[in-house]
Design brief:
globular, 12 strands
């Protein structure tokens, strides 16, 4: 899966000829073969089909900060970028892609960034260091603001604690004051990062996301009967959709964009899918609209979604304490995606769903079947309602994570 001869991928050319956006899903983040396949596929999409941007399921601000820093620091390594921006995917399989992105970025030929709203730490470090050169007290206030915001985020989105209007108002005021400082020093920002024409925009968008997230949480909990976990996921996917749409129009207009995220974020019509967790005996409809599902219809017309699935092997997510066998090494039902596609006599296969007409040998595309989410629990769906194509890998192994 590392060859630079892309002749075996040329069948994608007619499928994607009129598409501006390609979504690359994955049923689990912890799969070595998924990453290797996607790295090669991204190179093909860039070199042969003219895609210009790769957006990851990483924080929008982290992506901009890492991109900015790497634009002026030629010694920033791919390992540093992985640990700063893509820590859940900080593995050996991603490194060739980051090396490739750095190489292409130096020629302004291929950009990268994130679309998520969840936070790690690099953006805070980057922005506080920049603010410190002009106002040390404000830099310290900013770090304290972010620390307090993160505590509020954890208490509301994860612990389900209540959120007052006064708290909302105070956060909004504090972040808006910070945004005013950024605007007031926009010339300095452009001078220090001359290759990052949209850096100010993305920094402001990231800071706005902080109080917008809290506003959405307050609104959803007041109007909908959802669990804390469901509320957090509903808000996250909605904000990812808003970030992606904003990036597509305000930062990368007219660009051809590759989007890398979990199947749960990139598939369509998710609330039509019924899922059964490990500890459930019955299927229950999803309550969470995916990021893609939230996108406007004209955007979807220009998009193609690839879901990634597997048959057997071992999974190990980045922060998992143990690795597990796919499907716990049990046999599959004959009415499962995994059983059906395992009949194909190849280790790697791609099946287009979008342009098929129902006939004897593809009835499974048009009728309810099951497919494993995370490799462990079942989703029941009509597969072509949710994906345009399926990339199927028979045998998988865990990603090799850097410390």
């Amino acid at each position: 899966m590392t060859s630079n001869d892309y002749s075996d991928l040329n069948f994608f050319s007619p499928i994607l000829k009129d598409k501006q956006y390609v979504f690359l899903g994955e049923s689990s983040h912890g799969i070595s073969e998924y990453s290797k396949s996607k790295v090669r596929l991204i190179k093909y999409l860039h070199e042969e089909l003219g895609f210009d941007v790769v957006l990851f399921e990483g924080n929008i601000g982290e992506g901009a900060a890492v991109s900015a820093e790497s634009s002026i620091n030629q010694y920033m390594s791919s390992n540093e970028i992985l640990s700063a921006f893509l820590s859940p995917w900080n593995n050996q399989e991603k490194k060739p892609l980051i090396d490739y992105l750095i190489q292409q970025r130096n020629t302004n030929d291929l950009s990268f960034g994130g679309f998520d709203m969840r936070v790690s730490g690099y953006f805070i470090q980057f922005l506080s260091n920049w603010i410190k050169t002009y106002n040390n007290n404000l830099a310290q206030q900013y770090k304290k603001l972010e620390f307090n915001w993160r505590e509020t985020y954890d208490n509301t989105m994860e612990e389900g604690m209540s959120l007052s209007k006064e708290t909302l108002s105070n956060y909004k005021k504090s972040y808006q004051e910070l945004i005013a400082f950024i605007h007031a020093h926009s010339e300095e920002l452009r001078r220090e990062y001359p290759n990052e024409k949209n850096l100010e925009k993305v920094i402001v968008k990231t800071l706005e996301n902080r109080f917008v997230m809290l506003e959405k949480y307050y609104k959803v909990k007041k109007t909908e009967e959802t669990t804390t976990e469901e509320t957090g996921s509903i808000i996250r996917d909605k904000m990812m959709e808003e970030n992606l749409l904003w990036l597509s129009t305000q930062v990368y207009p007219d660009k051809k964009i590759i989007v890398w995220g979990h199947n749960n974020h990139v598939r369509n019509r998710q609330i039509e899918i019924a899922g059964k967790d490990i500890d459930r005996n019955i299927f229950q409809k999803w309550k969470i609209q995916s990021m893609y599902e939230n996108l406007p219809s004209d955007y979807k017309k220009k998009s193609y979604i690839m879901g990634f699935y597997m048959h057997d092997g071992t999974i190990a997510e980045r922060y998992a304490t143990v690795s597990n066998q796919v499907n716990f090494d049990k046999k599959y039902s004959k009415n499962s995606l995994e059983f059906i596609l395992n009949e194909i006599p190849y280790d790697y296969s791609f099946i287009d769903l979008k342009y098929q007409k129902k006939e004897k040998y593809n009835e499974w595309m048009f009728e309810p079947i099951t497919a494993l989410n995370q490799g462990y629990w079942e989703d029941r769906m009509i597969i072509r309602n949710h994906y345009d194509g399926i990339f199927f890998i028979k045998h998988v192994s865990p990603s090799h994570y850097f410390q």
